[in-house]
Batch of 3 targets.
Target 1
Amino acid sequence: MSIDSSKRRRSRRPRPQAGDAAIGLAQGPARQLVHGRQLVCRGYRRDDGRWDIEGRLADVKTRDVKLGGMQVAAGEPYRALALAVTVDDTHTIRDARAEVDVRTAGSAACARAAAACEMLLGRRIDALFAAETVERFVRAADCPHLAELFGAVIATARETVSLPLPTAVRVDADD
């Protein structure tokens, strides 16, 4: 039985990348970008055998805006947060820290959210973690933006620590 080679070629399409119109989201009438939210998480293996997971969230507008009495230029973040956790091979959080750009904080609660990281120390990222800790952290942080970032950082931690690395692998630079 022979397979028609023209059919085989047609089925090989380049895989769409995030942000590509090829995914199909950018169809329809012309559009103008107004707001952007960038959420980036990265996982690193440390020389001491632990894992650092870092996440950053930034919101920007495409026009100058006045937010909370502050003038923010187009393209500049009006909200910027960072969250980092250090975990060991048992998925136990050994360090946690958050930074909120006070100049761009969405509210006073966002600026106080960093203190909520202390409650994460010693907690293990497992099946119960999501149910218990996420709810407690979100309530303690009282910042929906940090809560969103927290979920992404924990998901990245699970992906980063889930597969063993060869012992010779060293990652110490951002992509």
Note: The longest strand covers residues 35-45.
Target 2
Amino acid sequence: MSIAIITAHRGLAEQPAGLPREVVSQLVERAAQAGRTVAVRACSSATEIVDCLRQSNGNGTEFVLFDPGVEGLSRSAIGACVARLDLPCIEVHANADGPVGIDSAAGALSVIDGYGAQGYVLGLSIALEYLGDAECENAIHVGT
């Protein structure tokens, strides 16, 4: 099953997926250890983010991590779309300069703010925990 990662493209200095290649590799590897796949999509507008969120419903996606970006236009549309999702999701603000909490507080499990690309790593850990797959990340288990 899949975890969708929807990133907001922030300029020419970014990698094609909106995230550094090393971070994407880390996300893919951690998801694979849990028997899951990761689908990363970089969006260039709020409209494209809404389209990606809508397409996530009913296509085998189990969890969504998304960055609404810094674009002010259509932010309420993103929030409304998140509120209608039948999937758990986490709003990731990779850049702390953007506005926090679009209108999605009712739909998102959490908001991760200002950790850059590592916010997606944190979000994936939360997603795996939520889906019951957090044990795959621990090589050593301590019993109580």
Note: The domain at 2-137 is CATH 3.40.50.9100 (Rossmann fold).
Target 3
Amino acid sequence: MRLHFISRLALLITGSFLVVATQEGIWTGSPLKWMFIAGGALAIVAAAADAMLDSLQQRGLDLITALVGAWMIVEVAVLGQADVKWWSFGSAVAITALSAIGLTIHEWSTERVVHELRVTHHEEARREADTPQVMPA
């Protein structure tokens, strides 16, 4: 679970950086292309590392993340300079959104487990307190 959280957080930070990088005039041309090649590779690796989870929702997000990561690599290799800016922006927003959704699903499942542990513990303690203790004579 920790690997899943860290990889989603890394993708969220990377995607956010790439969103800003597409809109700044500092990174254009070749540097922007190399950033998106590295970002796409990171998305594929992170999705592959998380693909072994039990959750069907997380595995679906991992598949979509890997596809968007592959698209990020293909788009910078195939599209022209004028098109790369906006297609890259869209891909970066998609990676950021998928990562945020994945983190939200992860937190919901983690919180549910913690809540179930607390409720179960408190109910057992209450039952023990309500059960009359029979003292041997």
Note: The CA atoms of residues 128 and 136 lie 18 Å apart.
